[in-house]
Amino acid sequence: MFDNLSDRLGSVFASLKGRGSLKEQDVRDAMREVRIALLEADVALPVVRRFIDEVTEKAIGQNVLKSVTPGQQVIKIVNDALVDMLGGQDVPGIDLNAAPPVVIMMVGLQGSGKTTSTAKLGKLLKEKHGKKVLMASLDVNRPAAQEQLAVLGEQVGVGTLPIIAGQSPTAIAERAINSAKLTAVDVLLLDTAGRLHVDAALMEEMKAVAAISTPKETLLVVDSLTGQDAVNVAQSFAGEVDLTGVILTRMDGDARGGAALSMRAVTGKPIKFAGTGEKLDQIEVFQPSRVAGRILGMGDIVSLVEKAAAAVDVADAEKMAERMSKGQFDMNDLRTQLRQMQKMGGLGMLAGMMPGMKKAKQAMEASGMNDRTLLRMDAIIGSMTEKERARPDLLNAKRKIRVAKGSGTQVQDVNKLIKMHQEMERAMKQIKKMGGMKGLAALFGKGGGLGGALGGALGGGGAAAGGMPDLGGLGGGAGGLGGLPGLGGGAPDLSKFLKK
């Protein structure tokens, strides 16, 4: 979503970081570019003015202009201001501190993704919070709206209120509350009806449902692709209903990001959740500091680690570590890693979370390397026999033709995959020579932590502020994502493996 804004801000800050000293006019010129970038990103004008004034005031202070690294200081000020704009460091989470059933009412316009968000939130509360959840659709206007929630409930393993035709929204709300009490439900999610626009009938219906259910949380679901109109809708709802937070959907889209950046400042309501994809597990707690990091190209390592923890099975990871320590790495191991990457959101999402991975992402796009490539590679491995997966050296010309036909690919695709595997296998053997996983851990322990280790191993430009390595050179050719098909390659050594 924030790609264009991130590019613009990146070029502004690159010019600042390249100077040994800054003058007041340099900062003001840079802030003018930042103002244009924010306005182009569809951020509300009053929010932009307040943001620029705050940053400029701090950035032209003597502590910044006279510091050793003025460019870095300005970036930190912008980062802190972005975090404040998005909601601050302490964003209130979902409030479940009440006698069960805790009622959460979902409101919003039609087509904003309310029903899907209800199912996503139900799944999140069940799996991450360990709550027993019941969902009820109060939408009697949209055809098959109640049936849609019932189907989604089956998919996420969350109970839904049985449908009784002809009931009014308030009657359904009463029945849902009674049912939740009888079945000892912890959280009751009420999916209210939407309209094509904010009108009196919609507000009256929501007020009536709220009067009966007394919700602990009233969450407004808005589509971030609608830009500033999403902020206007939020203002309209906030004036009529006691909102406690906002869920922004389609945060993975190609919108300019103005809704996310303006929402908190204009409405005063925190963004509590963000929908990051169409799948029912693609919802995450909105963290302003992480979003600001992504906008400024600093990555989001914490979210990356969380995704890895959710996607990687501990037993599989231990088994893989044991095999790596022995220098073993066959096609089954490669397939496991490819599937873990898919579970974590695919190549594009992973690259977007890594610090300085902008060039790598561009190289991937230029070479046609995308999530479909992962699927093709998985299909190629799936077309091999068990013996061939365990011993890829058995793959002669005849077998390669059979595998290519079985997977619907070309022989050259099979060769690329085999070459990639060979490079990674050699890297595993080098790890074994270094003393296995303990030796690798010792490597990462040198030179001031992860930053120093990667800085040396990659032959990069040393660690940046905070110990994070400057990974800006991961972009192209033989110095890029080495063994991945279509992205160049070279001598299969440990540095290339670490780059992968």
TrEMBL record:
Question: Which principal EC class is assigned to this enzyme?
Answer: hydrolase
This protein's superkingdom? Bacteria
Short name of one Pfam family for this protein?
SRP54
Q: Where is the SRP54-type proteins GTP-binding domain?
A: 270-283
Summarize where GTP binds, as residue positions: 108-115, 191-195, 249-252
> Which EC numbers characterise this protein's activity in its record?
3.6.5.4
Which chain regions cross the lipid bilayer?
Answer: none
| Presence of keyword Iron | no
Cross-referenced SMART domains, in alphabetical order?
Answer: AAA, SRP54, SRP54_N
Q: Which GO terms describe its biological process?
A: SRP-dependent cotranslational protein targeting to membrane
What's the family?
Answer: Belongs to the GTP-binding SRP family. SRP54 subfamily.
What's the domain remark here? Answer: Composed of three domains: the N-terminal N domain, which is responsible for interactions with the ribosome, the central G domain, which binds GTP, and the C-terminal M domain, which binds the RNA and the signal sequence of the RNC.
Q: How does it assemble?
A: Part of the signal recognition particle protein translocation system, which is composed of SRP and FtsY. SRP is a ribonucleoprotein composed of Ffh and a 4.5S RNA molecule.
Q: What is this protein called?
A: Signal recognition particle protein
What is the phylogenetic placement of the source species in the record?
Answer: Bacteria, Pseudomonadati, Pseudomonadota, Alphaproteobacteria, Sphingomonadales
